[in-house]
Amino acid sequence: MSSHYEAPIREPLVLGEKSYHDVSVEIAAPVLGRANKSWWIVFTIALIAFLWGLGCIIYTVVTGIGVWGLDKTIGWAWDITNFVWWVGIGHAGTLISAVLLLFRQKWRMAINRSAEAMTIFAVVQAGLFPLIHMGRPWLAYWVLPIPNQFGSLWVNFNSPLLWDVFAISTYLSISLVFWWTGLMPDFAMIRDRAVKPFQKKIYGILSFGWTGRAKDWQRFEEVELVLAGLATPLVLSVHTIVSFDFATSVVPGWHSTVFPPYFVAGAVFSGFAMVQTLLIIMRKVLHLEDYITVLHIEYMNKVILVTGGIVGVAYITEYFMVWYSGVPYENYVYLSFGAATGPYWWAFWALIICNMVFPLTLWVKKWRRNIIWTFIVSIIINIGMWFERFNIIAVDLSKDRLPSSWTLFEPTFVDIGTFIGTIGFFFVLFLLYARTFPVVSQAMLKTIMKSSAEQYKQLRAEHGNHTPHINEHTENPPATIIHNKPAARVETGDTAVKQVKIDSLMGSLGVFDPATQEMDDLKLISGVGPVMEQKLHQLGIYTFDQVSRMTDREYDLLDEIVPDFPGRAKRDDWAGQARILKNKKK
Amino acid sequence: MASDKKYWRSVEELNQDSEIVKALQQKEFVTEIPTDEFLGDKKALESTKTTRRDFLKYVGFSTAAATLAACEGPVVKSIPYVIQPEEVVPGKANYYATTMADGFDFANVLVKTREGRPIKIERNDLSEDGGSVNARVQASVLSLYDMKRLGGPLVDGQDVSWTDFDAAVAAKLDAMAGKDVVLLTNTLASPSTYKLISEFIEKYPNVRHVMYDSVSSSHALDAFQQKYGVRGLPSYDFSKADTIVSVGADFLGDWQGGGYARSYAKGRVPKNGKMSRHIHFEANMTLTGAKADKRVPATPSQQLQIIKALTGGSTSGLPEAMVNAVKNARKQLGKAGKRGLLVTGLPDVEAQTLALEYNAMSDAMDVEAPRLTRQASNAAVTAVVNGVIGGSVKGLITVGVDPVYSLPYGQEFAEAYKNLEFSLAFSMKKDATASLAQMVAATPHYLESWGDVQMKKGTFSLMQPTIRPLFNTRQFQDCLLRWNGSSQKYYDYLKDTWTTSILDGTGWNKALHDGFVVSNREVSMGQTVVNSEMESSSANGALASLQDNSGGYELTLYTKTGLGDGQQANNPWLQELPDPITRTTWDNYLTISAADAEDLGLENKYVSNGAMNGSYVNVSLGAVTVENVPVIIQPGQAKGSVGLALGYGKTAAIQEEMQTGLNAYPLYQNFSDVQNVTIEKVGGVHKFASVQLQSTMVGRSHDIIRETTLEIFNTKDKEFFNEDPSVEYDGQHISIRDEKADIWSPFDSSIGHHFNMSIDLNACTGCGACVIACHAENNVPVVGKDEVRKFRDMHWLRIDRYYSAADTFEEEIEMYENLGAMETYKKVETPSWENPQVAFQPVMCQHCNHAPCETVCPVAATSHGRQGQNHMAYNRCVGTRYCANNCPYKVRRFNWFNYSENDEFDYNMNNDLGRMVLNPDVVVRSRGVMEKCSLCIQMTQKTILEAKREGRPIKDGEFQTACSNACDTGAIVFGDVNDEDSEIVKLKDGDRRYHLLENVGTKPNVMYQMLIKNTSED
């Protein structure tokens, strides 16, 4: 093999020199293990918020929309703000899983599962609002083109709200299918590892009979690709259509051609911010630092920078157009001088500062790679993007064409409660997900492990670039001790010569059989430290009995194989010590 | 007729003696039911599968089912006609001409009844001079269905029968013989009643009749009587005046009984290049001032000097700007000569006399046929009040007045009233007076009564019942007849009086049908006031003292469009009618100028939901203090003056929700509506419920209210003063009305009818009658003060009122265009406080041909009609509110809650009585649906169907909406533009026509006629 050039900027995507098995164990751990106290605390809080929100929703449906702060001029405020906000958040998942898949971005593999979960849960929240904001939600099915006995009674295909119905439902279904497809091999893994019969059964059903045959994998890859192809246009279309709710209207500030691309960028912007918020917590709580690394965070920050930049340009464009058009009605739209100095100045400036100023700090590499700072910025962006939608919806409506109808909006406790409720609902779903689903797509991840393995670099460091990269022998130590997580992989030579020596050594010392024998603490032998012990283990030496069989020949062989401490074994008479210890043990 | 058909059950019946037939006659089944076979077979029974638990299940289920079945369903009480009344055809409305006369409002009206229920008041088109059918008259139909009305007569608070009541009254009257008993009535203006009263007085000579107007016009009456010998008020024809100068006369409001809007509007619509010039001096901002070409804020004391100056006196002491205005006004009045008119509202005999003298040569004033709707003499009333308090008056019979509430002497009078030997109140309600009276006679509403009124000398109106009395009531006249010992019904008495002394050849039936007759016959109107009393009444002290008192504020008391003198305070429609000027509902308040407000540290603040909060003040006049009066800072209020509305603050027989505002009558000392008061700021914040708080158009008046001057209108092209908005197309500017400017294909409107509506902003006075008419016609719900405060009023038709941010709207646009780079819009958002220009604009659904609402509804609940209307299918609406957001005119109203049969909204739709006013042709909307103006489609459809049934074409003018029908000034014209000869087509092609926000491209079917002001100063 010729030399291998490694680009110095590429960092590994999976840290900790995992083996496949490590990955399986670590990903399955939260599902198979028990929840800790902090999970319960967070879950309880989320559940209370959810129930409170549910109460607010029931109160609204029973009493009337009048329990919200809306009025004759401002027909939408928090309801549709929350709707657009949640839909926007739901954009990151599909972008990560579909677009990045098509672009062969391997780094997506650690985060796509959770991002997709977040998408689905966010779309569920989003979907709630168009339902409950209706005056008569029990007739919500009328927005579906269902054949009915009234003949000509049909939905109005001119209405952007109807387009929304199709866009959101398509998006939700594609996202769900995509998510589940990706989950099948992982569910199968959990099914195989699960001990409790109930769990086994459930995951058996969920994994849809996945066996891991080559044919399975082939179909899996094909379906993934097809779905990615289907989902990619949705990333662009869903928020485009949501933006049509506004762009096709005649309300000053809504009626804007820049909305479709601007909304999509904003959606990805806010979606990635939410992914950051969630994953930064999750990697800590579920100990996924090795899978979701600073590198992932930095990549996502870069996406945030790009989409935030687009959003910023859109803001400036809007502001410019307001000024340039000279139309008096534009004076009071959400990005205008009137808005900046009017009664909603705080919303205007919250938007500018949260969405334009704070994300700029991510241009600095040090901050972009700072997890705490990223977390803070991601939350600020989420707040800013909520304000963006509030500005567009409530501020634009509040100062419409006829000044006689101008008014302001004040939320009631029901408005606030419902919003908090959806946040609670979202977290309830996400927390349940984190305990029942493989949160990292381990099957995928395993396909990129080799490319990131630290071992080859170490190899080269020791043996130069000409060292062959293929290790003929799998170096896995016996299965029962694998969970002791060896600090370093075996670094014995790869040459046949070395292997012969090892064989020869082990031939005279005897093979350790984990089934019948017990491992001894070799460190009791004076001269054997932890490092040496590990090396001995790697050779297959585990017991005093084996060591006691050593003679001069074996000492020499050992020195040749492990050149670190020449002559040490002989000097310290390991065999003698081992004999004594062996007897003592008896 | 019973049928003889016989049905055969089987051929067996042909057999005469068939066993089976016989058996069937006796029994239900031919053979015995083998019960023994079933119950006797123990073995079979034991082997059945029904276990004990199954049995219990069956028992449980059948018990539950039986219980459920036994539950009572909702009982809808409806009583069918046993014999259908001749004139009632279900589904068809009957109209009756009658007359409203409550002492404050007098009007000839048409009453629309459905299935025997009056549901709406309309104008009586036949009557030219029959008072004005204003908002209160329109709303009076709801007062008929007032839950707080008295159910029957009371003696000492106990329900009694009318027989007992009569006996008690007779006994009391006999006992009172020789003692001074006063019959205190409102201005009845009723020839028959006056005659009846004189008969009553003949029988009981110790009784004397005194008339009392709660809001007095006594000074003007005195002046007129002194000059012309008749106690009445001159009637004016404003259309005959080229120059109108008003000094504090709110003649579009309730000045001298009101009703001048129609003749005023006639002269205000430019015709042949001419329109009248209106110069107005006033303290409060009133409807009249708002419509004036030139309005000069002046305090009442300044007004007194102005009227003197206008009639020859000096202008010294007046501010310079005002001096110029007065000089100009004088010049223009002089130039107009006989076509000049000077009117004043000052409570001052001298001022009134000056005006009368000035107008003596004017064509516009008619003294031959004076108005008789105000009669009270302040002196006489004061004498009675002093008599009651002093103890010389021993008995008081009140009719249609509530002195305990409306007299300025409040508590003192109430105490004295309680101690009277004899107190009897004729009242529809247990109001403040009735609740203290020993005897209360429950009177019917005017829609349940007979009566007659001579509003103006020579014009006699009839009042006829349109429904059988809802309660055990008897009208005052019937009582008098009974007490006079007559067995006649008042109907017969009335008819007798009319046939003998009023009807002049015309038949009774025709008079009843028309609602009025014009007759030359003189009828005694029972004027008992003599000159000696009048002289002592020259209570001009209040006004005179204003000039030398510099410390206080000059208060002008006024009556609001909604409540008037307060008789209908329990009427939720009127409570929720926004004041045309302040656009505030459910309240009265002190209006104050911005400068004075700043001095006193008073403020109006907008809170975070956009609603307004205001400070409180205490208003003191001598020993009287009205506490915690909320303050509204009123643009155009003369500095040094304040205004407060009468008629509020009623609590007796008023539902809690409608106990709004404060009683200002204690400040109505000497029955003078001008007082000198002191104001003191007190703590606390008042929550106002206004429907509009952005008062200016922020420089958008070209798109909203177009305006120009008469001079430009006469001399320039339409393109100059009323240019169509244009868009760029292929590098050229084309009119927005051009086909090419349209990306939509138009609807075909050439077949059938296509309705358009025109609103003339020159003729519209903002009086609000259309708003109430719309309420009544379309079952628009009342939502209450809290909801109005949240901007959730349900009015389908609103009247926007704008103030200019600069002196005029034209200057406002300039100011907006020249706004500095870093200046906020605050400058154009704030009205000019000193003296803004004011404009009214009724706005309802514009029925766009390219309606933004129609495209966005996901379920197509709102869609375009063949006749141009934008329809709203309530049943289909799911309530997304997208249509309302997308409506540039913001006319769509959402049912945030259920407004009917909901205790949270305890107004007329929450009780059976109040629901009787609902129009059966219009559905009551449920919660969660959008509603809006339908151009009264139920009315146009009815017109179409009727014409079709009668096989005739529809004449122009037959198509009406509630608002066009209600409009006294003819500002709202409705019609079919496919009828080429119709008035609406002329208006559509007129030079003044424009559309609201036309540049949006919605192509509305409602058009406006732009505002023209006669600004010429020479």
Task: Break the fold down into its secondary structure elements and pairings.
The complex is a heterodimer of chains A (586) and B (1018).
Chain A: H1 20-32, H2 37-63, H3 78-89, H4 91-102, H5 112-132, H6 160-193, H7 197-206, H8 214-247, H9 259-285, H10 294-325, H11 337-341, H12 345-357, H13 365-368, H14 371-398, H15 413-436, H16 442-447, H17 449-452, H18 454-463, H19 496-509, H20 530-539, H21 544-548, H22 552-561, H23 568-571, H24 574-585
Helix pairs in contact in A: 2-15, 3-5, 3-9, 3-14, 4-5, 4-8, 4-9, 5-6, 5-9, 5-15, 6-7, 6-8, 8-9, 9-10, 9-14, 12-14, 19-22
Chain B: H1 19-26, H2 35-39, H3 42-46, H4 52-70, E1 93-101, E2 106-114, E3 117-123, H5 135-144, E4 154-155, E5 158-159, H6 162-175, E6 181-185, H7 191-203, E7 207-211, H8 218-228, E8 233-236, E9 243-247, H9 261-268, E10 277-282, H10 287-291, E11 294-297, H11 300-310, H12 320-336, E12 340-344, H13 349-359, E13 365-371, H14 378-390, E14 395-399, H15 403-406, H16 410-418, E15 422-427, E16 439-442, E17 451-456, E18 459-463, H17 476-483, H18 490-502, H19 508-514, E19 516-518, H20 531-536, H21 541-548, E20 553-559, H22 572-576, E21 584-585, E22 590-592, H23 594-600, E23 604-606, E24 612-621, E25 624-633, E26 641-646, E27 674-687, E28 689-690, E29 707-709, H24 710-715, H25 718-721, E30 726-729, E31 732-735, E32 755-760, H26 769-778, H27 785-789, E33 798-803, H28 809-817, H29 826-829, E34 838-843, H30 852-856, E35 862-864, E36 870-872, H31 882-886, E37 893-894, H32 912-915, E38 930-931, H33 937-950, H34 962-966, E39 972-976, H35 983-988, E40 993-994, E41 1006-1009, E42 1011-1013
Parallel strand pairs in B: 6-7, 6-14, 9-10, 9-12, 10-11, 14-15, 15-16, 20-26, 22-25, 29-42, 32-41
Antiparallel strand pairs in B: 1-2, 2-3, 4-5, 4-16, 8-13, 17-18, 18-19, 20-27, 21-28, 22-26, 23-24, 24-25, 24-27, 30-31, 32-39, 33-34, 35-36, 37-38, 40-41
